[in-house]
Each structure stands twice: as C-alpha cells, then as structure tokens.
Write a structure and sequence with these properties.
Oligomer: single chain
Structural class: alpha+beta
CATH class of the largest domain: Mainly Alpha
Strand order of the largest sheet: 1-10-2-3
Radius of gyration: 24 Å
Number of domains: 2
Amino acid sequence: MKNKLNRGFRRICRKIVCGIAVAAVALGTAACSDEGENKEIEVPKAEKAASVANGDLKSDSTVIGVGDAAVSYDEYRVYSWFLKNQYEGVLSSEVWDYKLGDATVGQVAIEDILRLIIQIKVMNKAGAEQGVGLGIDEKEDIDHKADQYLATIPSETQQANGITRDIMYRIFEENEVARKVYDVTTSAAIERKEVQAAKVLLLYLEADDTNREQVRNQANALSAELGKYTGNFTSFVKDKTGKAPKEVILGSLDSRTGLASTALSMKRYTTSGVVEEKDGFYIMYCLKTSTRRLNNTYWEQYISEEQNRVFQTAYENWAEKYEVKVSKSLLAK
C-alpha cells in the first residue's frame, strides 16, 4: 500500500493537468536550508529569484520564485487541487495523513507539487530562450480546453481553491509549452538498430568493492540452492529476499553486457548461473526469448530511456541558470 501510494504521487505529478504527459525528471530543486528568511538554492551567476512571502499567505502572495518568474499562492493551490482531486476521487480524504516513512502523504505531495511547478517554470524559460512557444491558434485551442475543463468544476470548488480563468489559462498554456520543449529537446532521430531481447525475472544482489567477495559467495550459495529447489523461481526469490523478482526486458543494447548476453543465450523457462556486473550479482529466469514483437518493445524502451537521458541532461543545464526560492510557509504545512 505504502509503495503504491508513493509511486502514484510521483506518477500524477509527472503529468500535465489536462492529461498530456510531460517528462519525468528527477529534480532536487526544492531541497533547501532552514537558515535565512527564504528557502533558496544558491546557483552561481544564476538569474536571481523573485522574493517570496513567509508567514500568513494571501491569494496573490508569491510563494515560489524561479528566476524572475513568480508563482502566486493561488496558482500553487490550483496545482494542489489537481492532485487532491485525483486522489480523493479514489481514496478518502484521510489519505493525506497516511505515513510514508518519516513523512505523511500530504507532506510528500507538497514536495512533489513544488518540484512539478519548478520544472514547468524552468522549461518555459528554456522555451523562451529557444523560441519555443504557442502560436495564436495554439493558444486559442489550449485556452478553449481550459474553459471546457473549468466548466466542469463547481463554482464553490473554484472559490475554495483559488481557481480562476487566468490561472487556469496560464497552467494549461505553460504545460503545453513544457510539452513542446520536451519534444524539441528529445526529437533528434536515433538510427534504428537491429536488436535482440529477452524477458527475464531477476534475482539481484547489490555489491561494491567493499563487500564483493562476500556477496559473490552468497550468490553462489543461492544458485546452488536454487538448483535443488522444487518450487518456482518467484517463490524462491520471495522466500530468500522477501520480495518478488523484477521482470525486465534485457537486450543487445544494454550497458550490462554480460547480463544481456547471458539472457539472450538462455532458453525459455531455464535459469542462469550467477552473472557478475559492476553493480553486483544476478541470477535470471527466462520468461521469453527473442521475438519480433519483444525486440520492438525493447527498442521502444531503449528510445524512451535515451530520450529521458537527453532531457535530464538538458534540464540540469537549464536549471543551473535560475535561482529558486520557496516560501517556508508552504513547507511548514
């Protein structure tokens, strides 16, 4: 339950509010010091962040500054409402008090909302630098979608959550620009390669230079025990590690070359020996050998990973250009 909730929040916070997916970015931008009046991220030669308010917040109080872009309390509240609306439609309002480690779901949600807003603002600034924006027709179309969505929200809900037409237009427009920036950034063609793939279950034992021999012995012992085991691979892994084996598609473009070549050499419903990689030791069970459909799925997976890698690199470069400030009042909620 806990892991599903945590993954669910990240999944929702990676989506554009009207259902258009935007890039998933591992952001560390809202982690701040408790010292000083404003929580901020110091970036050399970065565009100075707009000042933010602390204490009692009003509708037009600036609560997030990303460079000179200011986010009002009401805009933050609308993003919060999107998340709240999605979850309380499935779960009860008590979900926000549920514990995820040392924090509540509500506290985790606030951090995710902050990261999402910062991401959108950074991407819009990058778009402005690159000349990526909305044409007149595009803007009219996006604003029309915002109006349609706004019409589905009861007036009392709008009033209670700071939802206005201007804020809704801005959120929809900025999310569309962010989507376009992602597409432009990741649109470079990747030459199609002939690939082979296999679908496997993994038993993975993490290792580094400090414990490699110890983990190697553990992996070899498990492999020997597995050879005598009368149950299936999944039940064995659950019994030994407390969790199910991970199902993955490995292929000829994988950076773990030893693991990939072993997987591709396996026959269906067979178990591998111990495979050593830099990050540890693996034992595999082959679910499916190479087929055209599986190879195509693997290629699409590879393209997606490459696009995310390219975007992540670009985003980190953009983010360095802007100082970020977040109101302490938001993080104290």
